[in-house]
Amino acid sequence: MNATETMQIEVKKTKRSRLPDVDWKKLGFGNFFSDHMFITEFSGGQWKNSRIVPYGKFEISPTLSALHYGQSIFEGMKAYKYSNGEVYMFRPLDNLKRMNVSAERMAMATVPEELFMEGLLQLVRLDSNWVPKEEGRSLYIRPLLFATEEHIGVKISDTYDLIIMTSPVETYYSQPLKVLVETKYTRAVPGGVGFAKTAGNYGRSHYPTRLAQQKGYNQLIWTDGYEHKYLEESGTMNVMCVINDTLVTPGLHDTILAGITRDSVIITAKDLGFKVEERKISVDELVDSHKKETLQEIFGVGTAATIAPISLFGYNGNDYNLPPITDNNVGGKIKKQLDDIRKGRAADRHGWMYKV
Ligand code: COI
User: Which pLDDT band holds residue 1 (cuts at 50, 70, 90)?
Assistant: First the structure.
């Protein structure tokens, strides 16, 4: 960990809250940002100038190294409001851990826990009236860490900014997804950065995703970069299938993001008595089990969507429709249990909720 020069966080409050300007009917995902953001800067081997300021634009140099050479990582997590008005974040320390894993891989400065948690807590407390209370809504929290060195030679940046911004959101996907199994383009290869939440992993996905969307699909199912034979992720999410009443998901390795929602879904599934297997899933197995009618569900899991049901997958020119999606299927039951934990209606057996 890097040394923290000071934990002092200066707070400059906005003169006018923008909360009354939010069009709650058009909330969607990532369209509105809360009044404040947390900023802290790394230079000379230390984090300094930690502050909370009104959310807004800032000036950057055209030579900002993150823009040229991609040292940019982010996280996504959520805060929830209980019916008694208390605010809780879901597993924020796990997000910090993962951010520092991404930072290590990208040769960036890591963020000390005390600084991250103090900035995060003060920010969410200050903007706690932005945390929606309604079912299906939450406050999405986006920490962003990027290289700020102003230098056009290729080198590891010596300076970084961490910004935490927050956004009231609703469910990411409103409809079940049609996905195409991608067999040409690759998201990640062994030895690469697939496990890191780095900007480039998303940028590289846009082109193949657009090609699939032009064919009528919403998203891709990524397959391995060697043979395009085994499932890896679904769009920006981890992927899970229910085959023969067993929840099956690819095991973690360096081409797959270690999703915190993925982990929470696996634990919750086991708590609910479902059998879970973390193993390779081939596209052939998917097609075979579809033929035998043992393939019951496929869904993506991620912070933004929690569980995004898939209604159809396309592979090799064929479309395979999945059985109807109901709240009573495995994905629906796990989602309900997770929602109940996050809204304080079910016991938090694993200590996931962090009081703000
Ligand atoms: C998620 O599914 O939580 C993601 O990471 C998507 C996000 C980039 C909006």
Answer: very low
